[in-house]
Amino acid sequence: MSARTLLFTKSLRSRSYLSFPAYAKSLQRPLSVSPSSPLNASPTKNELPPLPPKQWIPDLRARLGKCIIFGCSNAQISRAASVLRALAVEWKDLVAGSEGFLTGGRRGLDGRQIAWGEMDSFQHVNNVNYYRYAESARVNWITNFAVHVDSAHRQQWAELMTPKSTGLIMKSLKADFKFPMVYPDKISVYHKLRCKPEGDPAPSNFMLDCIVLSHQHRRVAARLEEDIVVYDYKVARKASMPGFMLQLFHKTWEMQQAEEMRARTRIWELIKAVEGLEKETWDREDAVEDMGSAVKNSA
């Protein structure tokens, strides 16, 4: 193993980028694309790539670690570092974006620190807090339109969160908890439209999907679905979605579709890059592991 490879491997270990037991157990590549995969079938320009496997981030790290330990050239080390850098920097946008969630700005909660007091006697974040996270993110999602997107209707967007005129009422809120989060951790919470609101007259309700991302685990900790009703407080009854709201929701839906395409394409590019490194290192017919200078000196 070259000095640069050894130094890079130690650096990865110190930064907890790699889970060495994970790839030591098996030589299989669970994220490999099969010949029948849509990505190998020359998809059309507008064809949406499939969702990646659930554990694609830790799996890619483990597979890169195996390539590095087996022995890489300087150029291969640089390519591996590029993928690891992308996983470290882009993971949040890719995990959320692959399902159509828009990140950045004030579209939700971004990097919110979990408080120690939010844990309960079972030493994990109490379930009630997930509803609060979703509530705060939903308010940010709505007010983002007023502040950063549609300044012409800023007052109307702001009033949606008040009982002054046309507002929003939560009809139902359901949660699906994936794993227990504990302190310390950070979360990012995002919303998206479940479907494009259409109809004549305009619909009086809409569905939102919400995800709570754990920064420590870099995956979804909880999913929520929200059924929201447009309500006219002046006449005390349901109302059709205002025109400015319907128009902007249509644009938001298109942005969600575009982000879903971009994020999935990027993820599969990273998977392909790792597969390329595997085929150039341990997964080639004449592969011989670099055992380092100790073996050479003993010969």
Describe the protein in words:
The protein has 299 residues and is an alpha+beta fold. It has two domains: 3-98 and 259-298, no CATH class; 108-257, Hotdog Thioesterase (Thiol Ester Dehydrase, Chain A), CATH 3.10.129.10. Helix content is 43%, strand content 17%. The chain has eight helices and six strands; from the N terminus they run ααααβααβββββαα. The chain has helices spanning 3-14, 20-24, 56-70, 74-97, 127-149, 154-159, 243-280, 293-298; strands at 108-113, 166-177, 186-193, 205-214, 219-232, 237-238. Strands 1, 2, 3, 4, 5 and 6 form a six-stranded antiparallel β-sheet that branches. A hairpin with a 4-residue loop joins strand 4 and strand 5 (219-232). Helix 3 runs antiparallel to helix 4 (74-97), helix 3 packs parallel to helix 7 and helix 4 (74-97) packs antiparallel against helix 7. The longest helix is centred in the C-terminal third of the chain and has 38 residues, at 243-280. The two termini are 15 Å apart. Mean pLDDT is 86; it is low at 12-42.
